[in-house]
Amino acid sequence: MDPRLAAVAAEHHGVVTLADAERRRLTRACVRWAVERGDLMRLATGAWCPREVWEASDDRQRHLLRVRAAQSRRPRAVACAESAAVVLGLPLQTVPPDARLTVARQPPRHGGSGRRGSARGRRAWLDDDEIVVVDGVRVTSPARTVVDLSRHASFPWALAAGDAAMRLLGISADNLREAADRNPCAPGHPRAVLVARHADKRAESALESVARGVMIHLGLPPAEPQVVLQQDGLRYRVDLLVRTCWTVVEADGKVKYRDDDPTAAQRVWLDKRRRDDLHDWGHEVVRFVMADERHPVAWGRRCVRSFNRAYERRGLTTPDWGSRLTWW
Questions:
Q1: Of the N and C termini of the chain, which has fewer Cβ atoms inside 10 Å?
Q2: Hey, is 91 helix, strand or coil?
């Protein structure tokens, strides 16, 4: 590729536009020739990125390139919802292919949505303090982003975004509640309030937050994240602890036990020892993997069986947990 085009891309975070190329005194024919040769890949009308940059990027990086390309065409647009989550580094269940952009409404204009080029656009009520700039990208504030995700995403994943925003970006539960209360008539407002109520900065991973979100949605007893248990000179920090049911919930992914990881066998052995110690201390242990999020009732019933075993070990009458799972 022409090194001058490569310099333009490097200067603008991997995006080349006609306007930027012409400011470098490059002709449209130069850009068109690079596109025809396959050196540049189209992101939006009048915006491209070098092929090697695209091929070396993952889904989130490619989405960010699309957001930058869309904003190069619409400078007043603001990345929102899933696109804002990508820019801010918040967890998502899936990364959408199209950029999500919004433009602040100005009375008496009406709202609406539609697709323009490679981006989905809409108009929304946005105050000035709900727009921030991150690495040159106009994006909704962390609290507003979590509220928007709460209105569109499932509750467990919205809670994961709220937990991450509190842990990584320093917002508080009050910030989330205030952001939700700015638009009390917006669709999904009750879910946004629920996320603000339960978000917890102590959660250390998206999987852990999703597990807690599933438990809240099922109406199971509350689980506390990142609790330290110690006895007999041993000390373990567990992902989630249901104190009222003496049950530990461990959120694990397959990546922890990959065959190509030389330490995987050691991790399996340590996990077995850890589980045995927790059982000796009177705790049940339940594991949550990402596949359980797609089958919440089956996993919830497994939790209930663990709760019942913990009660029976103490000679206590088990509550009617099953009735809490019938409404799902």
A1: C
A2: coil
